[in-house]
User: Which sequence fits this backbone?
C-alpha cells in the first residue's frame, strides 16, 4: 500500500494508474475508520482497479465550538485497516497541502446545503464541498464513494461534481449498522454504554415511522411525530431535527407520495473522557429513504444494510 | 480550427493534445474580441502547443441591472479573429453546458474579491471564480492566460487555482492600449467619439500619479488626489473608485514603499444605441502597478504595453 503525503504524489499516483488503464476510485474519509468506511472501500473496489483512501480531518467543516481538536485520529489503526482491506494507496496530507498558505477559496452548494444539518451547522457543507472539490481535482478519480448515512453530504457532493464539470461518478453506499441497529459513526466512540443504548432511539424512530407508513399513514406531520416520540423516550436525547424531505432536492414533503427522506439528528451527552480530549456532546445522524407501500425500489437507491459488511 | 460545443468535446480535445505530448493553453473570454484578447492568444502560443479560446458570456458575473443582455456577441467576427490568429480550437458552449439544470454550486475567493470591483459588483467575482473553475476543470490546460487590465480578476484566478489544487500555471498578460492610451475593452464600443475622448482621463490619471511618484511623492492620499483630479476634468465621468493597494493581497497601502497597484473604475454615459441593445452607462477600469523610483521591475510583472501587439 502506497502512502502519499503531497498533492504532487497523489496526482502522480493517479496519473500512473490512468496511464496503465486502471480505473481509479477515491474514498474520502476523516479517518477513525470503522466497518462503514470499509464498506465504502469494498464498493470502490467493485467499481475500480485502484482505490485510494484519503485520511484528513478537515478543519473548515468544523465550527469553532465543535469537536475538531477532539475528533479521533487513530492513524496507525486506520492504516492497518486500509492495508487489510486491500487499499492500493492512502493519502494522508499535511494541512498545508490541502489549504496552502493564505487559502481563501471556498465551494458553496447553495440550496442543498441550507436545510437539515446545514441549519444547525452553517459552516459544515461549505467545508465539505471545498475539501471534496480539492480532493476530486487532485486525485482525478473515475469514481468516488460516499456513505448514505451522511445523506445530505452525498447529495451536496453529487451536485458539486455535476456543477463543476468534474468527470467523476459519485457513488452512494448504504448505511452500515451494528447488529443492534445503531448506524456506524466515528463519533459513537464518545458514547458510554448506557448512552449508546439510548442512541438506538434513532434507528427505532426510523423503524416506527416506516412501520406506520406501511400501515397506511403517509402524512409527514404524523410520521415525524411518531419518530419524535421514539427519540423522546431516550432521557438524555436532545432532538436537533426530524424532517421529511425530497431525497433529490431536499425540499420539504407533506406526504410520502414518492421516495421521501426521513432524516434525524440527535445530540447526547458525551462519556466522561479519561486521558483524552472529548467533546461535551455527541451529535448523531441517521436517515432512511421511505417509499409508499408497493412502490418499486430502484437498484442501488436503498440505504439499508445491517451488520458488518463483507 | 476546431469548434467545440460541449464539455465532452472540450475534454476529448484536451486529452488528445496531452496524449500527443502537446502543452495546452486556455484563454477564457466573453467574446467581442479585440487586440487585447489577441495579445492573450499570442502569450498563450508562447507557452503552449495548442491554444483553446473559450467564448462565453457568463451570466453569473452580471447583476440583474447590469449589461448581460446588451453585452456584444459578434460570434462570426470572433471566430474569424481566432482563425486568423492561429487558434487551435474555440469552445463556444451553450449555457446548459457550463450551468447544468439546477446548478447551484459557486466558487468564492473570500478576501481578494471584497475590495475594488467587488465592492460595487458583489456578484462579479463569485461568477468569475465559478466559471473559470469550471473551464479549468473541463479544459485541464497546462497554462491559462488572463489580461492584467482586470488585475483583481487575475489575482482572484491565481488564488483559486492554487487553493483548489488545479495543476495549471496562471499567466497575466500586459494591458493593451490604443495609440491614444485608452485600455482596450469590449465595452469601449459603447462610447461615442466625444465620450471616448473623455475616457482618456483614466490613462492620464495613471500617468499623472506615476509622474508624481517619480517626482518623489509617495503618499497614497496625494497620489489618489492627483489621479482623481484628472478624472474630474472629464465632465461626464463618474468615479467609482481610485485606490492604492498591495498587488498581491489587495490590502490598502498608505505609501508606495514597494510595488503598489493603482486601480481605477470610472463610469461614463453610453452612446445612444441605434438598432441594438445598449446599457445606460459604461463602466471602465484601468490600473498600473507603481514602483518606488529606482526599484527593479521583475520580468513579466509590468502591466504596460502600448499599441496593437504582435
Assistant:
Amino acid at each position: 500500500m502506497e502512502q502519499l503525503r503531497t498533492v504532487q504524489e497523489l496526482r502522480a499516483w493517479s496519473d500512473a494508474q490512468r496511464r496503465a488503464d486502471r480505473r481509479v476510485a477515491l474514498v474520502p474519509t476523516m479517518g477513525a475508520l470503522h466497518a462503514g468506511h470499509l464498506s465504502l472501500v469494498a464498493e470502490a473496489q467493485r467499481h475500480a482497479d485502484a482505490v485510494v483512501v484519503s485520511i484528513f480531518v478537515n478543519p473548515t467543516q468544523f465550527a469553532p465550538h465543535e469537536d475538531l481538536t477532539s475528533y479521533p485520529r487513530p492513524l496507525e489503526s486506520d492504516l492497518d485497516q486500509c492495508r487489510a482491506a486491500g487499499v492500493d494507496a492512502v493519502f494522508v496530507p499535511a494541512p498545508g497541502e490541502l489549504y496552502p498558505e493564505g487559502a481563501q477559496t471556498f465551494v458553496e452548494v447553495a440550496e442543498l446545503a441550507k436545510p437539515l444539518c446545514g441549519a444547525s451547522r452553517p459552516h459544515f457543507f461549505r467545508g465539505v464541498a471545498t475539501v471534496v472539490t480539492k480532493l476530486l481535482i487532485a486525485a482525478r478519480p473515475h469514481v468516488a464513494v460516499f456513505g448514505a448515512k451522511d445523506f445530505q453530504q452525498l447529495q451536496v457532493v453529487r451536485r458539486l461534481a455535476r456543477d463543476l464539470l468534474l468527470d467523476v461518478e459519485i457513488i452512494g453506499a448504504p448505511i452500515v449498522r451494528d447488529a443492534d441497529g445503531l448506524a456506524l459513526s466515528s463519533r459513537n466512540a464518545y458514547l458510554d454504554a448506557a448512552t449508546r443504548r439510548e442512541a438506538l432511539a434513532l434507528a427505532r424512530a426510523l423503524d416506527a415511522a416506516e412501520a406506520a407508513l406501511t400501515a397506511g399513514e403517509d402524512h409527514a406531520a404524523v410520521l415525524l411525530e411518531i419518530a419524535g416520540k421514539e427519540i423522546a423516550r431516550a432521557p438524555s436525547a436532545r432532538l436537533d431535527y426530524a424532517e421529511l424531505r425530497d431525497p433529490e432536492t431536499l425540499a420539504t414533503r407533506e406526504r410520502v407520495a414518492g421516495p421521501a427522506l426521513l432524516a434525524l439528528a440527535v445530540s447526547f451527552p458525551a462519556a466522561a473522557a479519561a486521558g483524552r480530549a472529548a467533546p461535551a456532546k455527541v451529535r448523531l445522524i441517521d436517515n432512511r429513504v421511505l417509499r409508499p407501500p408497493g412502490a418499486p425500489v430502484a437498484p442501488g437507491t436503498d440505504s439499508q444494510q445491517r451488520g458488518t459488511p463483507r
User: Anything to note?
Assistant: Residues 306-310 of chain A have pLDDT under 50 and may be disordered. The beta strands of chain A are 2-4, 24-29, 50-55, 89-91, 105-109, 143-147, 169-173, 238-245, 260-269, 281-290. The radius of gyration of chain A is 19 Å. DSSP finds ten helices and ten strands in chain A.
